[in-house]
């Protein structure tokens, strides 16, 4: 336990490096939501859970009471996931939903600790083709996802669990900034 916490803290202590891209990511989300557009969010495994968590903070609420905001996790529709995975390819499960649902002005948030999951990468590419902005939450140096997204939040760690722990922190910072933009500073 003590050594786990120490390693967690070591990564946490470096997270301030992400302040600039974090501000950029937050302002892209706010700009999109204020203009009546939406966030589409995707990832695999633990990052699928993060995608759903993020979307629920916006459609439900984060900390303060406010109007519901438009956000959709692309990980929740088992019929779409199995149809697209079965009939096309697993690499297409998010990208095809992005092509179906995204509009210019939307924001696609791709979450991948390796930065190299092909289905997340294809979702970012499909979003860019649709004129949506793209934000990557990654680790392990960022991978291809960080190179292709408009904004990359790359956690300085090579450990999947630690990267995931920092991703949820970054998501909560984004939620707090979005709340402040809609409600004013508390
Ligand atoms: O939560 C964990 C490991 O902590 C796993 O479920 C993990 O998310 C899965 O192996 C993912 O498929 C990893 O994908 P990615 O983060 O590299 O895109
Ligand atoms: Zn995990």
Structure, described:
- GO terms for molecular function: carbohydrate derivative binding; D-sedoheptulose 7-phosphate isomerase activity; zinc ion binding.
- Zn(2+) binds at residues 53, 57, 164, 172.
- Belongs to the SIS family. GmhA subfamily.
- Pfam families: SIS_2 (PF13580).
- The structure is a single chain.
- The protein is α/β, with parallel strands linked by helices and 186 residues long.
- It has one domain: Rossmann fold (3-Layer(aba) Sandwich), CATH 3.40.50.
- 54% of the residues lie in helices and 12% in strands.
- It is built from eight helices and five strands.
- Strands 2-1-3-4-5 form a five-stranded parallel beta sheet, with helices on both faces.
- Helix 3 (46-59) links the parallel strand 1 and strand 2.
- Helix 5 (95-101) packs parallel to helix 6 (118-129).
- The chain is globular, with a radius of gyration of 16 Å.
- Zinc ion (ZN) binds at residues 46, 161, 164.
């Amino acid at each position: 336990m003590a050594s786990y916490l120490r390693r967690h803290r070591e990564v946490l202590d470096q997270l301030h490096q992400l302040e600039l891209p974090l501000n950029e990511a937050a302002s892209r989300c706010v700009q999109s939501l204020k203009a009546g557009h939406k966030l589409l969010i995707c990832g695999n495994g633990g990052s699928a859970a993060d995608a759903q968590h993020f979307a629920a903070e916006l459609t439900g609420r984060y900390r303060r009471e406010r109007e519901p905001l438009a956000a959709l996790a692309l990980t929740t529709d088992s019929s779409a996931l199995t149809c697209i995975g079965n009939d096309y390819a697993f690499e297409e499960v998010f990208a095809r939903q992005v092509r179906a649902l995204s509009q210019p002005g939307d924001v696609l948030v791709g979450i991948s600790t390796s930065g190299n999951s092909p289905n997340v990468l294809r979702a970012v590419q499909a979003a860019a083709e649709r004129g949506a902005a793209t934000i990557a939450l990654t680790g392990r140096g960022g991978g291809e996802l960080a190179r292709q997204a408009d904004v990359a939040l790359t956690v300085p760690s090579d450990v999947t669990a630690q990267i995931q722990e920092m991703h949820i922190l970054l998501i909560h910072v984004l939620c707090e900034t979005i709340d402040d933009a809609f409600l004013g500073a508390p």
